[in-house]
Known about the structure:
Structural class: mainly beta
CATH topology: Porin
Largest sheet: 12 strands, antiparallel, barrel
Amino acid sequence: MRVLLAVLCTATVLLLDRRAGVLAVAILFAMSSVVQAHGVAGQRFFPATILTDDPFVADEGSLPTITLSPTGPDGSQEIDIGTDLSKRILRKLDFTLHTQWAQSRPVGAPATTSWRGLDSGLQYQLFVNDDRESMGLVGLNVSWAGGLRNVTTLTPTFDFGKGLGELPESLKFLRPLAVTGNLSFDFPTQTESAGAPNPNNFNYGFAFEYSLPYLECCVKDVGLRHPFSQMIPLVEVAFSTPVNRNAGLKTTGTIQPGVIWSGKYYQIGAEAIIPANGATGHGLGAVVQLHWYLDDLFPHSIGRPILGRKS
């Protein structure tokens, strides 16, 4: 496990500023544990992904998520440190919170540090089908005005996950594959702010995963050892397309190959960030995340639903 952590931490130190890299190194080398599933449908474990939203309600949190974005179209560079929280109210209903701080480095100007604002959400688990290794939820996210934002945006969402464990024996080595996806639509509360239009955006993203734990437990024991037996290689993609009031704006998005290692109390993920087009940026970026399973860390307190705790 320490080999994987060393790789992630070295990338962090090289790509991020010195203080952020040292912080990531200290946190990532702190622990080691065994696998336990979160976001489960039958024998399928859906990990908490970094770029795209998860198709399950949960008692989990991410701290920190450190992102070095690709160079922007205007040549600017940015480093973000973010945190996320998902907390169940009822067994099938949770709320989410997200915020982040950013250090921006415009071309020819001094670096600035700013708060990006607060996002919140409410999510309901529509279904979990163990036989089909599938799940889905609906939600409403709110990006509140504040920080660098001057408008509040409402975003209804549909998130889903599907494993391929039903494939025939002749394709058994494809059974560890799974896909999760997000579909959402932005509704800004003002059509214009600060002299610029606020378009409605159609957002769509997918994560394509190959679960080595699923391969070992449910397809064939190929003899993988710790930490590789707990890894899930994946590729995430996400795009946003303005559908009106776009004032020349184009579709933006990123492609993010990486790997997630999942333990009993936490998971670690790392991904490269590749701009999908020139409107998104150029060059490469990177993101690392430490994600905590609150329901395993605190099973008798904050890891349980706020209401209906016996469920």
